[in-house]
């Protein structure tokens, strides 16, 4: 039996409490939140859970084996560090920390104490992304030419981070998981709509060694919710649309080949191969259930998480560099040293 | 009665011949193309049209009043210049020319000779774009925050130009027409898939004085055809999807306002106003019919075209600067002098 | 404080328990279900709720004020009747009962005892249907010409009822609520795929006094989930698509008018007016929350429910007649006497 | 070289003239239409085609080998019969004739004179329908359980026929072509919106020997254009959506199997197999081009058309019986004798 403490019962916390609560041999022992109304909700729904205002009471609760950090991004480092220092395993919501230095410090702390440090890159655990990873790993797509993600909606402008840290973090986590290569350069441009806030709209570009491109459009000021990714391979291409109810992943048997025929007078056309489209069946397990299950398994058996601190660090490093680039009208920033690309 | 000569009977030429042929008081007198098979098609369909191989025979045909240039982009300048020098009015397919210098030279020539020089920015004449322009002009959208266009499909990789000159040119023409401001800086990154060709995928970013952003994703290597534009206003927002059969323009009564309430413990949310969505009825006249009609009217009555040489020059200037930026990993290029922004 | 007992914790029961549990001044006191595993789930989630196997223990529980019947359709009558006879107010899942005779008997019992009898026609409480009712009531659509509903998906073939009692019941409830007239005749054809089961696919047709048509396609054997209704008015028309995330209701400013011009040689065309399309903003309150709230309000203040026993009886009467018609290859069955149309 | 005469230059005639004109070894020699404006259009587009007002001049034109009948449905019989009697091969737009008696008479005439009689069931020649036929013929779908077609739009209410003869005729032609069995009974209900016109909305149901169902919703008064067919097989199911640009046919690897496990307390569920979805690549040849080509091939080589007079007669027979059924509130009408089902 593992006892989990959850820090933060805002947007994502309730889902975490529910999913950990549904696991066998796991109990949620304590929830911390600064807002009394939220704690009242916890008490009404789960009268047996201890509710506290300050996260320290969870971090130092002797009954707690592991802490789940679902507080605002700016507090991730402080809560996670205190929990690790108190000897708890830690699962942190994305992003792992607010700076790459903080992320590295958390990794050190966890390594030294032989504790599990996992970051909740939820999308990595979805059936859609798992299937896409299989397709890429089996070379079904051929060379990856580009990865283009659009993630837009109206609302939830956050005061503590810009839109990249909120929305693009998901796409960077997916790319880190499924792509065979790491980017060497990042650039980004953004738009601050309301004075005193961060960028609400941003475009982030990644360059890869083999000339491939990664691009993310993250937008809090869009009239419609879009979650749509194109992945171009030399052999096959994917449209991954997370707003679709069932056919989230579509694999197009389409590719290119240089036409070797005689030159056209006006233009030389590339020959395109167009074949069938296949939408594979995806299982319907809730991804967060798998996140919770995987974290508990890592804690129980001392395994390394699929989305460990290093993964979290790489994503934070790109976000940090992108934020720098945005401050400088889109100047490219090298990731070579930091990502070892 | 005006007699038109058409140079180039490839992809777009047949549509031009058909649309000019449908106008009253206009006849298509001659068509030039280097490919005999295409000329044979013209003769089968329109036995009365004179067909010639070389464009000079159209440019110097005394029966021809105006020349429509639908040859490959790299030849626009040469054909248009020769036609103007022979005293003909000229309608050029987009882009107006291959360089801003050439475009300026064509403007000079037309001005000096008091001839009409028009560029076929077809989308400007669609009912969708005309309606969007009305909405912006009437301040229905409020301040324009961003313009985001995606234009992708598989195929038709051109040898003579990169994907921006082919696809993004449409979006730049639309932006030039509907936006109240002009951009001061452009940057772009691109991906060359096949050695010896130009960029097949490119992302172009425009910065405007009031911090607004323009962004275009142009892509010849996508598995699906997308023609989708988001226009964010402070008061209303638009989704313009040209692949929709009837509801191409959707106006969302959505905007933002900084919430002045007490700070949330974790995050300060911006308040969003969400209201109805309206898809205005659009008329169904073929845009190219209006292009042809407008050109003939300008020729007949000596009017200045809506999409004159100056518009064509501005679009070419941005494309030229974007191509420079792409060659330099996305370094921002100033448009201040050239566009007078 | 009202105490509610819930009979049946299968597909819909958990949603009912959750929604009644979220209301102020309401507590769920007891849940009955024949399956021990389901009761175990109740106990894990809500340790304070009394769980019992037999519905009689809920019906006769002195602490219970009202019983919610979410057991299989074939048991609705028995459970509801016992509850009414024990002096409890009753909310029954649709359909109210398995026969019109049973439904009438329940109404009598409730009337005599002055108890609330409400049927959970959930869709009537959705923001989409409420908005459509407003549009029809305000004569925004003009005369209603037809109501066409498609409700298909794969799965959940029920043993105890045919597809009409399961799926078409929703559409009949909506029609009863929003249409100004009642049907006088029903016919239906169906298809039994698996021997020993009921119809999996059925088409139900309703005739109205003013010649208007109602039609429902209900299908458990479809590859895709469809929830799509067309409502044709002489002035405006509606597409109501419940699978859409946000734009569930689209109002088309389209209608007809007989063209009074000179006869065409070949065909006389009706003139169509086509205008804008408007998708009104819909609020996002969960409909079942409103159902629970409305039931509690009726119980507390002795009000007549919007979806009372009479409504439930009318829907059952049509389902009964349609089942008859299906058994007879689609022979029309008159509803005149029973519905008083 | 075959010379074709076309009677009727209204909605479909121009497409026929264009497609026959594009074939090698075929010339369009004459076009008849009662409207002078239409003939003027023919003359402007094709100055070499003889234009006449009366169809008899085409039917008796010695230069004409075959007559294409694209006049209104009510005149098909007269024009086709006169043409056959004048020794011409005949291609008739659907429906073949206004009554089954007329259709049978045309078949007799053609048979006796050894002339080709073909009906233009265009959809049979589309790549989508051809692919669906292959899938059914190869038993890829298993037993066909139902065929459900929706064909709606706003407009073009015809004076001479009801909506079934106009829209449902397409679906009946497709069903006749792809389904392994013929229906034995038809019923239909319809709605006449405007006095003095025919039904604008109709639902047609077909019963097959193996209990399978066919159903068509045809509607001229719908706010949106829908062309969507579900085909349910015991092994696989198809969604055929003709409004899709590229993925018109989607094959779902979904089927049913009676779950043989222990009875659930409340309901016995059928087990469903859900697998991948495949959208096969379809070629893009215009179907009408194949119609024209096939007709010319049949004329040239004396072949029997895929859509011969017998096919046309079967479709007319069903339409006739459905119209009867509509006049009688949906009473089922037997097709046994007439279709030999």
Write the layout of secondary structure elements.
4 copies of one chain form a homotetramer.
Chain A: E1 2-7, H1 13-21, E2 26-32, H2 36-45, E3 50-52, H3 55-59, E4 66-69, H4 76-85, E5 89-93, H5 100-113, E6 117-120, H6 127-137, E7 144-154, H7 163-178, E8 183-191, E9 201-208, E10 213-219, E11 221-233, E12 237-241, E13 249-257, E14 271-279, H8 287-301, H9 309-327, E15 333-334, H10 336-339
Parallel strand pairs in A: 1-2, 1-4, 2-3, 4-5, 5-6, 7-10
Antiparallel strand pairs in A: 7-11, 8-9, 8-15, 9-10, 11-12, 12-13, 13-14
Helix pairs in contact in A: 1-8, 4-5, 5-9, 7-9
The CATH homologous superfamily of the largest domain in chain A is termed Dihydrodipicolinate Reductase, domain 2
Flag low-confidence runs of chain A. 259-269
Give the overall silhouette of chain A.
globular
CATH level 1 class label of the largest domain in chain A: Alpha Beta
Side-by-side strand order of the widest sheet of chain A: 14-13-12-11-7-10-9-8-15
Concise description?
4 copies of one chain form a homotetramer. Helix content of chain A is 33%, strand content 30%. The first copy, chain A, is built from 10 helices and 15 strands.
Keywords, separated by commas or semicolons:
homotetramer, 341 residues, alpha/beta, Rossmann fold, nine-stranded mixed sheet, six-stranded parallel sheet, 30% strand
Can you describe this structure?
Four copies of one chain form a homotetramer. By secondary structure, chain A is of the alpha/beta class. Chain A folds into two domains: 2-123 and 287-307, NAD(P)-binding Rossmann-like Domain (Rossmann fold), CATH 3.40.50.720; 124-283 and 317-339, 2-Layer Sandwich (Dihydrodipicolinate Reductase, domain 2), CATH 3.30.360. Chain A has helices spanning 13-21, 36-45, 55-59, 76-85, 100-113, 127-137, 163-178, 287-301, 309-327, 336-339; strands spanning 2-7, 26-32, 50-52, 66-69, 89-93, 117-120, 144-154, 183-191, 201-208, 213-219, 221-233, 237-241, 249-257, 271-279, 333-334. In chain A, strands 14-13-12-11-7-10-9-8-15 form a nine-stranded mixed beta sheet. Chain A is globular and about 65 Å long. The two termini of chain A are 41 Å apart. The model of chain A is unreliable at 259-269 (pLDDT under 50). The interface between A and B is large, with 65 and 65 residues.
């Amino acid at each position: 039996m593992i006892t989990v403490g959850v820090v933060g019962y805002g947007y994502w916390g309730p889902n975490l409490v529910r999913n950990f609560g549904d696991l066998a041999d796991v109990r949620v022992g304590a929830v911390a939140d600064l807002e009394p109304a939220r704690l009242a909700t916890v008490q009404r729904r789960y009268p047996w859970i201890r509710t506290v205002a300050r996260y320290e009471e969870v971090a130092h609760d002797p009954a707690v084996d592991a802490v789940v950090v679902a507080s605002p991004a700016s507090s991730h480092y402080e809560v996670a560090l205190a929990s690790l220092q108190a000897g708890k395993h830690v699962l942190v919501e994305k992003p792992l920390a607010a700076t790459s230095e903080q992320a590295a410090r958390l990794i050190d702390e966890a390594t030294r104490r032989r504790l599990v440090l996992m970051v909740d890159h939820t999308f990595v655990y979805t059936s859609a992304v798992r299937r896409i990873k299989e397709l890429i790993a089996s070379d079904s797509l051929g060379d990856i030419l580009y990865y283009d993600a659009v993630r837009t909606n109206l609302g939830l402008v956050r005061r503590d981070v810009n839109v990249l840290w909120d929305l693009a973090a998901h796409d960077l986590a997916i790319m880190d998981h499924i792509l065979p290569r790491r980017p060497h350069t990042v650039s980004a441009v953004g738009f601050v709509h309301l004075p005193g806030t961060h960028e609400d709209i941003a475009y982030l570009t990644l360059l890869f060694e083999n000339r491939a491109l990664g691009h993310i459009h993250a937008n809090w000021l869009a009239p419609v919710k879009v979650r749509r990714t194109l992945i171009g391979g030399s052999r096959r291409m994917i449209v991954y649309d997370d707003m679709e109810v069932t056919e989230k992943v579509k694999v197009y048997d389409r590719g290119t080949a240089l036409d070797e025929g005689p030159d056209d007078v006006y233009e030389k056309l590339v020959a395109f191969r167009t074949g069938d489209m296949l939408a594979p069946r995806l299982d319907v397990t809730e991804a967060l259930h798998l996140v919770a299950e995987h974290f508990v398994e890592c804690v129980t058996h001392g395994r390394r998480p699929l989305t460990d601190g290093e993964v979290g660090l790489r994503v934070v490093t790109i976000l940090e560099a992108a934020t720098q680039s945005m401050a400088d009208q889109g100047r490219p920033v090298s990731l070579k040293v930091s990502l070892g690309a």
